[in-house]
Please model this.
Amino acid sequence: MNMKNAMARAIVILMLLLTVRVSAQENGLIDLGGLNIGDAFGYPALNDVLNQPDHTLDLADFKGKLLILDFWGHGCASCVRAFPELDSLQRAFGDRIQIVAVNPEPREATIAYFDRLRRIAKPHFPIITADTLLHQLFPHALVPHHVWIDTAGVVRFITNGSSINEKTIREYFAGETPVLPEIRRVRQPGLANSPLLQLVQESNPRYSILYRAIPGVGAVNRIPFLTMNEGKAERITFSNVSAFELFEYAYSKGRSRYRVVYPEQCRFDGIDKDTFVRPAQDSLFNEWYTRYSYNYDIRVGDDQQARIYDYMVEDLNRYFKVEVRIFRKREDVYVLEVVDDALFASARKPMEKPERHLDSLTLRGWDADQIVAYFAGQAITQGFRKRFLNGVRFEDQLYLRIRRMPLSLGTMDKLNRELGRYGLGFVKRKRKMPRLEFRAL
Model:
């Protein structure tokens, strides 16, 4: 081993130790402002509030209660799906708690949004719209985002969207400390952008790092940071993901964005599945997250990019001490196909940049892969457990404008009617699809 490579590897080890220590002790973090845990809350009065007679709300009316602020957005399906449960919790705990939803969209747009919802009713608790003040007090990047303000008016928890459930609220009133992942409003370089890596990359080595995530530090992000060079991956970084998500991405060679392998379709032999897969119940997520989420970073040299996913597989198998094989089974899938050649010509005509409408979706300049990936992602977030594949052999840009709708078995016909105006449709097919079998070594 030459001196240059030896020094590069030594720097990687030092970088890992420093990353974990800095994250654990919060050294070098930059505060983004706003209120933090332990700060006193000022209980402001606000306007543009739904479910209030005069559209105003004085949060001081809720002093002495557990006040939970639920930050949400019109584009967040999981936020909306949680409303019925939040409504039931508000009824169950009565005057002991007050849930208040908060979003930055105009009041009229929010009213129109709820008018279009068919399967989920508008919640009965206050809904603050057109908000800027609370967003300044509690800045965040992702929704749902929850802030708990205790009966003494002190910010008690700043956490993610799975934190509000009967179990955690009962633990709070019993004087216990619920296990809630803390979302820290700080900025740090992190592993993906550490300046130490610049020194390592100068010698162009291959390295990989896999370690348990530190709850509350780093982005809660299931989407990989991917660096490409001439169409090939040279670096992949994940933050706060499950072991199963790492395996799925590696074995699908990065194509899992729309060729999803669901955990329930796989086999686990001699392995506790619960340690590999995120729990379906929100009440179990927080405890699981603190134990079984991971960070991973791999980089390869220019001459090794074709093998980056093979190296990732080797890392995962060795770290988790498993043997994985791919098997195939026939299942129903939805394949995007051209169903009318004449109409398909209209999908290839560039359109003017349209005005943004809440009830329509514009896919402007997308290729077929991107369109399939979008609907696959919508299916995942909305609990529609079907795989979406691309059967369109047209790689240039497409231009579509269709009506927004939730994805389910009952709405696929409606979606196809919208796509049919452009000669496209998701056709139900039987295909042998890959699945994973995990066996403990």
Remarks:
- The first strand starts at residue 30 and ends at 31.
- The CA atoms of residues 274 and 280 lie 10 Å apart.
- Residues 6-32, 219-223 have pLDDT under 50 and may be disordered.
- The radius of gyration is 24 Å.
